[in-house]
Design goal:
CATH topology: CNF1/YfiH-like putative cysteine hydrolases
CATH architecture: 4-Layer Sandwich
CATH class: Alpha Beta
Radius of gyration: 17 Å
Structural class: alpha+beta
Bound molecules: zinc ion
Order of helices and strands: EEHEHEEEEEEHHEEHEEHEHE
CATH superfamily: CNF1/YfiH-like putative cysteine hydrolases
Distance between the termini: 32 Å
Number of helices: 7
Number of strands: 15
Strand order of the largest sheet: 1-2-3-15-7-4
Shape: globular
Strand content: 25-35%
Length: 275
């Protein structure tokens, strides 16, 4: 497997590999990363680094995978707090009271597709397998956010919801936000049909840069570009937004892809923490 990216690098520590954006690696008080399929203990269709509970893998294996990833990233396993994603746009503020939820404590809420915090040492965990990861850092007020944006969440403008909530909770000014849009299915592979495209076309965005007709009612959709435009319309400066150049389906030997595996798969996670 050959990994190439102009914005991310692959970190390999104790056989655990994860991807990180150089833009966030340069912020001294931030730790972040995206898991790959390498370095875990899961077997069969979950081999080997599966970060998703509840897909058929054993909880013991997923727990061990989290411990290994945290060790490699230098993040405290006990500080993890996970989302409860279902393709909606609710954004939850979390603190040490929520440590462990969705990881080593049961979920206490449904429908949490975004997480924000300004606590040091509260690590936000979100899950993906083709959907678009959004990670936010307020470089002035030292606050962070993470969101899961599949096509439904993107149409619902969850990126803008995170910006708004960070403004309400932490007085975040959008111009102080750095945002990375992580590994997701690219416009090279993400084919959709009319009902999906109609919802994107109805957004007040530049459709010509994100919807590419193929004929026969089929289109290639650029979810990363859609999120970039939504973030810009929420006030995030263009130069503060970095898009992944790694497609999950093209790189499905390295990163979990729902479409490439036909749904028989584990999951990737993004972790983001203030240290
Ligand atoms: Zn692709």
């Amino acid at each position: 497997m050959i990994f190439t990216s102009s914005v991310m690098k692959m970190n390999i520590i104790n056989a655990v590999s994860y991807l990180s954006f150089e833009k966030f690696d340069n912020i001294p008080y931030i730790k972040h990363g995206f898991s790959t399929r390498m370095g875990g203990v899961s077997t069969g269709e979950f081999r080997s680094m599966n970060m998703s509970f509840g897909r058929g893998d054993s909880d013991e294996n997923v727990t061990e995978n989290y411990k290994r990833l945290c060790e490699a990233m230098g993040i405290g396993y006990k500080t993890l707090v996970a989302s409860a994603q279902d393709h909606h746009t609710f954004v939850r503020r979390v603190s040490p009271e929520q440590h462990g939820i969705g990881i080593y404590r049961p979920k206490d809420m449904q429908s949490v597709d975004g997480l924000i915090t300004n606590d040091p040492k509260t690590a936000l965990v979100t899950y993906f397998a083709d959907c678009t990861p959004l990670l936010f850092v307020d470089t002035k007020n030292k606050a962070v956010g993470a969101a899961h944006a599949g096509w439904r969440g993107t149409v619902g403008k969850i990126g803008a919801r995170v910006v708004e909530r960070m403004g309400e909770e932490f007085s975040t000014d959008p111009s102080d936000l750095l945002v990375t849009v992580g590994p997701a299915i690219g416009k090279c592979c993400y084919e959709v049909d009319d009902p999906v495209v109609e919802q994107f076309a109805a957004l007040e965005l530049n459709s010509s840069k994100m919807i590419f007709p193929k004929g026969g009612g089929k289109y290639m959709l650029d979810l990363l570009e859609a999120n970039r435009q939504i973030l810009m319309s929420a006030g995030v400066p263009e130069e503060n937004i970095t898009l992944s150049d790694v497609c999950t389906q093209c790189n499905s030997d390295l990163i979990w892809s729902h479409r490439a595996t036909g749904g028989r798969r584990g999951g990737m996670c993004a972790i983001l923490s203030i240290m």
